[in-house]
Amino acid sequence: MKKILVTGAKGQLGTTLKEKARLSKDHWVFCGRDEFDITDSKAIAGFLKNKQFDCCINCAAYTNVVKAEQEVDQAQAINVEAVKKLVHVCNQNQITLIHISTDYVFDGNKKSPYLESDITAPLNQYGKSKLMGELEIQQNARAFYIIRTSWLYSKTLGSNFYSAILNKAKKGEALSVVNDQIGTPTNVDHLAAFIMRLILKEPPKGVYHFSDEQIMSWFDLAVKILEEHQLDNPITPIATAESGVEVPYYSPIFSNKKF
């Protein structure tokens, strides 16, 4: 039986892992920011000391792509500096770090899905901070998995693209969705199942990609959501808004690693 810590446990992925862990034979501990502040070195060390965790799944992250352009320090505090602290304490306690990353570490110029071996080149501050966190882990962690995922959504939890589209449609509100960004939308249930299988199988350490394998635009996903619920609201395809933030227009991720 393994002992597993999950940080950032109140988000989509942490909540989903908590639901699935009820059927697991392993011992799981779930911590939100109030219980476990990953930006506080002393708090991390104190919490992990003598607990004998086997794995730490770091779901905590700064994820606001637009705000990260102005809040560079805040993004780096969570996505880089906190990761550095977590790596140090995990090394001290022989804990395998499982870190969640993003397709935004790529620039979107490739014409086929990105693989683990492809060169990273983030376009915006969010992507840059996530890549810096990845590099901190790759260069210094004793044992790690970095899992890059793409366009995460939940059909049942909280506020995300899926729920936003569905709620607007049910209220009869106008729907306008970008059709010039292409990716691989990923159901959070599937990502959680992948992480649990990784913990069980213990494949070679390193970087892994996980997404659902259907390549589509946000517009395509919105159409699919309405079809699932037998709704026929019209959806207007639009170009990516001028937000001042560069994003990868083509960032599907596939994996060439099997286990």
List keywords for this structure.
259 residues, alpha/beta, Rossmann fold, 2 domains, six-stranded parallel beta sheet, 7 helices, 35% helix
Question: What's the topology here?
Answer:
Blueprint: E1 3-7, H1 12-21, E2 27-31, H2 41-48, E3 55-58, H3 72-92, E4 96-102, H4 125-140, E5 144-149, E6 152-153, H5 161-171, E7 175-178, E8 182-183, E9 186-187, H6 188-201, E10 206-209, E11 216-217, H7 218-228, E12 235-238
Parallel strand pairs: 1-2, 1-3, 3-4, 4-5, 5-10, 6-9, 7-12
Antiparallel strand pairs: 8-11
Write up what this structure looks like.
The protein has 259 residues and is α/β, with parallel strands linked by helices. It is 35% helix and 18% strand. The protein folds into 2 domains: 3-153 and 184-209, NAD(P)-binding Rossmann-like Domain (Rossmann fold, 3-Layer(aba) Sandwich), CATH 3.40.50; 161-180 and 215-238, no CATH class. It is built from 7 helices and 12 strands. The strands form 4 sheets. The chain has a 6-stranded parallel beta sheet, with helices on both faces. A two-stranded parallel sheet has the order 6-9. It has a two-stranded parallel sheet with strand order 7-12. The two termini are 20 Å apart. 39% of the residues are buried.
**Strand order in the sheet with the most strands:** 2-1-3-4-5-10
CATH class of the largest domain: Alpha Beta
Name the shape in a single word: globular
- Helix/strand order: EHEHEHEHEEHEEEHEEHE
Coarse structural class: alpha/beta
Known CATH architecture of the largest domain = 3-Layer(aba) Sandwich
- Which residues form runs of ≥5 with pLDDT under 50? none
What characterizes the major β-sheet? 6 strands, parallel
The radius of gyration over CA amounts to 18 Å
Number of separate structural domains: 2
Instruction: Find the CATH topology of the largest domain.
Output: Rossmann fold
